[in-house]
Design a protein that fits this description.
alpha+beta; globular; three-stranded antiparallel β-sheet; 6 helices
Length: 260
């Protein structure tokens, strides 16, 4: 998954300009570059076999381990929040009006469960050996065959537009500060990593939700890739479901200037 996807198009390669440097100068530059690469490789390896050294932790393993730890922290945070809410339900001197107002705020913030009729949208990458299914379209580039960040964002935005009372992406509830982001071919959501297929569940009026999906220009563009290259798209009604409340931190994080 990447952050952008260009529409299928054809075009010619840019013309190459004439070479102005003598071949001798070019040869010297090549040898200098080779020497630099040799020195860099030596300093990096320090006598180890880079390809077979099992002590080097793969970045993908590190990401998965951090994602697992973040899930554990989310679960622990949810447990503590439940204990705090149980204590808060005891007689604390607040009025019924105050309790009702707090309940409404918690519901709007997404920290409470929500139950109702729901639909689930599933998006998936196309088969790696996909070809154009309709005439007049170019053969697919790798970029055409994967889910992009804006595809997920388009679905989420359309569901909100259709009056969703709550949305869950994979196993996490979305709130106002949630950011659907992609790095490489994976989704990173609230500190956890996911791979396709991606499932987005929304509670609301199923008819209005599906109408909003159909009317979204971004999703209409996505459907071109579905029909031509086989990207995955499925919309199913789930009946009555309960979405979990958001269990992560609600603190706002922002950049801080670094003193020179």
């Amino acid at each position: 998954m990447s952050n952008s996807a260009d529409s299928p198009q054809t075009g010619s390669s840019p013309a190459r300009g004439p070479r102005f440097r003598p071949a001798r100068v070019l040869t010297i530059a090549v040898f200098a570059l080779a020497g630099l690469l040799f020195i860099t490789s030596f300093n990096t390896a320090k006598g180890t076999n880079i390809r077979t050294d099992t002590s080097l932790l793969k970045l993908s393993d590190l990401i998965q381990e951090r994602s697992r730890k973040n899930k554990e922290l989310d679960d622990a945070n949810a447990t503590l929040r439940g204990e705090v809410e149980a204590l808060a339900e005891r007689d604390d001197g607040s009025t019924k009006a105050q309790d009702d107002k707090l309940a409404r705020l918690e519901k709007s913030a997404g920290t409470q469960k929500v139950t109702g009729k729901a639909i689930t949208v599933t998006l998936n990458d196309a088969p790696p050996n996909a070809t154009a299914k309709l005439p007049g379209y170019p053969e697919p580039q790798p970029d055409y065959l994967v889910i992009h960040q804006q595809d997920l964002q388009a679905v989420v935005n359309a569901l909100w537009q259709g009056g969703a009372k709550g949305i869950k992406v994979m196993d996490q509830r979305l709130i106002s500060t949630s950011a659907v982001r992609c790095v490489g071919n994976t989704l990173i959501l609230q500190g956890r990593v996911y791979s396709p297929p991606y499932k987005i569940t929304a509670v609301g009026d199923p008819e209005k939700l599906q109408k909003a999906l159909a009317e979204s220009p971004a999703i209409q563009n996505y459907m071109v890739y579905v029909n031509v290259y086989g990207l995955g798209w499925k919309v199913a009604e789930d009946g009555t479901v309960t979405l979990p409340g958001y269990s992560g931190t609600v603190d706002l994080h922002y950049a801080k200037p670094v003193e020179p």
